[in-house]
């Protein structure tokens, strides 16, 4: 009977499951179009977030670069000890300021130094200001609008060695009330090279140019060598450059006139040609910024130390003293065999026996100190922390800066 009940229950369960499944299938068939329509109507999009930086290493890599003659600036993490070494030179070290900068001055120019800080190593070569270029010579070529330039320049490891480069620039010379000769929109042309000769192309053959070659190293630019044209390339080479007025007159002559010639009309005399004047010439010099002084080629600013008062303490010191508690008078016959612990007077041994103990007494406060009840104390002047952007050379605060360009009359 129990087995039969179980089978009936199982049959009922199967029948119920079939009915439910049919309902689910029917419901799915009915609702599927609506769901598909909703899916087609609602489109989910995601913004393109490719390449967005979301995290980055914040550590500061060790770098060392020349920033002034015979001086280098080291950048690393703030408040880090930096060591500077080179063969046969005294090792130097300094602590970077809160911005991670330390400056070393009065180094040997052209010598390779090894910089070490917090396990990292870098190398740097201090240099001097680059010397002046000389003897700039400009020559024509067989190619129109092209010149070759050569110049002389003494180089050395101390002045930059292989880091020295040059900028050759051709600038239109201003004439006739400040209007450039030729096309008013003629631009300057400049190229860079590491050699002491170069080819410059793209010049306007009808324009007068002023040429400059400027050397530069890691510290900046040196003094330029200047050469100015007194004749255009067209004049030198004999190239005929047709003028716009000539072209217009030729066209007018070729076109036949259908109307009889009119009576001549009086015309005013042509305006006088303005006198050609050369533009004021200037040159660039490199000077120290305001408030900085040039010390052996290094722009230096000095600042005296400042101080604040702090209280210094030191522990007490002590000394031993005997404290007397009793005295006993002794007077007995002197026995040479036993000696006398006191004073011999004739045949008597007499004297005081002083009784007591030894203890420690605190010393008086040293000169310049006071006793505050717990220790000796005095006020002392303490040097303030090195300001931001400055270094401590042991006698004062110091900072350096690169020279800045200033234009002055040539």
Label this structure with key terms.
Immunoglobulin-like, 410 residues, 4-stranded antiparallel beta sheet, 5-stranded antiparallel beta sheet, disordered N terminus, mainly beta
Q: Can you tell me the CATH superfamily of one domain? A: Immunoglobulins
Mean pLDDT: 78
Query: Do you know the CATH topology of one domain?
Result: Immunoglobulin-like
Report strand %.
Answer: 35-45%
- Main β-sheet: number of strands, strand sense, barrel status? 5 strands, antiparallel
Helix content: 10-25%
Number of continuous helical runs:
3
Low-confidence stretches: 1-35, 247-263
Distance between the termini: 126 Å
Q: Which descriptor suits the 3D outline?
A: elongated
Structural class: mainly beta
Number of beta strands: 29
Work out the radius of gyration.
49 Å
The second-level CATH architecture of one domain is Sandwich
CATH class designation of one domain: Mainly Beta
List the helices and strands and how they pair.
Elements (H helix, E strand, L loop, with lengths): L1 H40 L21 E6 L2 E5 L5 E5 L6 E4 L5 E4 L8 E5 L2 E5 L9 E7 L6 E6 L12 E8 L1 E2 L3 E2 L8 E5 L3 E4 L8 E9 L2 E2 L3 E4 L4 H5 L6 H11 L27 E6 L5 E3 L2 E6 L3 E8 L3 E16 L9 E3 L2 E15 L7 E2 L4 E8 L7 E2 L4 E5 L2 E6 L1
Antiparallel strand pairs: 1-2, 2-5, 3-4, 3-6, 6-7, 8-9, 9-14, 10-13, 10-15, 11-12, 15-16, 15-17, 18-29, 19-20, 20-28, 21-26, 22-24, 23-24, 25-26, 27-28
Would you mind describing this structure in some detail?
This protein is mainly beta and 410 residues long. Among the domains are: 63-124; 134-238 and 273-283, Sandwich (Immunoglobulin-like), CATH 2.60.40.10; 313-380, no CATH class. The protein is built from three helices and 29 strands. Strands 10, 13, 15, 16 and 17 form a five-stranded antiparallel beta sheet that branches. The protein has a four-stranded antiparallel beta sheet with strand order 4-3-6-7, with no helix packed on it. Strand 27 (391-392) and strand 28 form a beta hairpin. It is elongated. The model is unreliable at 1-35 and 247-263 (pLDDT under 50).
């Amino acid at each position: 009977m129990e087995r039969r009940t179980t089978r009936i229950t199982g049959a009922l369960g199967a029948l119920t499951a079939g009915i439910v499944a049919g309902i689910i299938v029917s419901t799915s068939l009915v609702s599927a179009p609506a769901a598909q329509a909703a899916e087609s109507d609602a489109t989910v999009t995601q913004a393109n977030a490719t390449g967005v930086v979301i995290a980055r290493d914040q550590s500061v890599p060790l770098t060392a670069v020349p920033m002034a003659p015979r001086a280098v600036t080291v950048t690393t993490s703030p408040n880090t000890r930096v060591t500077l070494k080179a063969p046969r030179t005294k090792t130097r070290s300094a602590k970077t300021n809160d911005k991670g900068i330390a400056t070393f001055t009065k180094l040997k120019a052209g010598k390779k130094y090894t910089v070490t800080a917090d396990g990292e190593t870098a190398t740097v070569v201090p240099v001097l200001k680059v010397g002046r270029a000389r003897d700039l010579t400009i020559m024509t070529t067989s190619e129109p609008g092209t010149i070759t330039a050569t110049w002389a320049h003494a180089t050395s490891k101390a002045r930059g060695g292989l880091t020295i480069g040059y900028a050759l620039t051709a600038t239109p010379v201003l004439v006739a009330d400040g209007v450039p000769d030729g096309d008013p929109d003629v631009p300057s042309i400049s190229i860079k090279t590491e050699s002491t000769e170069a080819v410059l192309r793209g010049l306007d053959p009808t324009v007068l140019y002023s040429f400059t070659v400027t050397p530069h190293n890691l510290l900046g630019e040196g003094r330029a060598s200047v050469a100015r044209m007194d004749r255009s390339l067209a004049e030198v080479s004999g190239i005929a450059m047709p003028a716009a007025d000539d072209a217009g007159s030729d066209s007018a002559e070729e076109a036949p006139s259908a109307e009889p010639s009119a009576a001549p009309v009086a015309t005013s005399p042509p305006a006088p040609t303005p006198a050609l004047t050369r533009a004021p010439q200037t040159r660039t010099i490199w000077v120290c910024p305001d408030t900085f002084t040039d010390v052996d080629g290094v722009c230096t600013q000095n600042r005296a130390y400042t101080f604040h008062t702090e209280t210094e303490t030191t522990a007490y010191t002590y000394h031993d003293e005997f404290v007397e508690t009793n005295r006993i008078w002794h007077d007995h016959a002197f026995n040479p065999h036993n000696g006398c612990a006191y004073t011999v007077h004739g045949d008597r041994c007499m004297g005081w026996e002083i009784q007591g103990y030894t203890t420690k007494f605190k010393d008086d406060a040293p000169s310049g100190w006071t006793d505050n009840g717990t220790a000796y104390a005095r006020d002392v002047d303490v040097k303030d922390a090195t300001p931001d952007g400055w270094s401590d050379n042991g006698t004062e605060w110091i900072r350096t800066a690169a020279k800045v360009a200033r234009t002055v009359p040539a």
